[in-house]
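so my prof wants the structure for this chain in the tokens format not the other one, which i didnt know existed until like an hour ago. anyway here's the sequence
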Amino acid sequence: MNHPTLLALLQLTSPALPIGAYSYSEALETLVEQGLIRSASDLQTWLEESLATGSIAVDLAVLLRAHRAWNRDDRDNLIYWNHWLSATRETAELQQQSWQMGRSLLKLLQNLYPQNDWTVWDMNLNWNIAIVFAMAAGLAEMDEQTAALGYAYSWASNGVSAGVKLIPLGQTAGQQLMLRLTEPIAQAADRAVMVTDDRLFSCNWGLTLASMAHETQYSRLFQS
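here's what i got, hopefully its the right format
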């Protein structure tokens, strides 16, 4: 990987990227309140299983399809996968999170890459964050597997950050957990490259139920 591409990857996966990721826990807040996640070990299990069979695994596979469509300048296919991904969101909370982060990143990309012709894109469409991340990766001339790896890392990092605040965990424990997640993150990115369209499914009912509860949770640190 050349230096500009590596730096673009670091920028895209930075917690400082102003797209609002820090304000979401993806229902971890509810799981902690219910006592289902109480320790770093519990959080690790949740994140590992999500990477293997949860909605993030589908997001990664769709991200790769969007990346290929972007590189071919295939707008129809890119929009198709964006609609497809929106339809898989099982709660309003998860759907709004994906759309809000997608809109924020798209606005940022317009300022980072003003030389790109943005007039051909419908800025009023509810773009999902995984789709826009694929656009960003394409603009940075990032290969698809690197894009998937970066997206998976960013997702896991946000989950660990939420767990550090909620359980709570110490900062060192959070960094130790990120290190233990290195292999599961890499495996998730590798699987996403191989999955075919007829294998795009997830086992997501735990997240769905927790997200539904979080929408009405009385006291929250994270956005709903």
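also thought this was worth mentioning. DSSP finds eleven helices and no strands in the chain.
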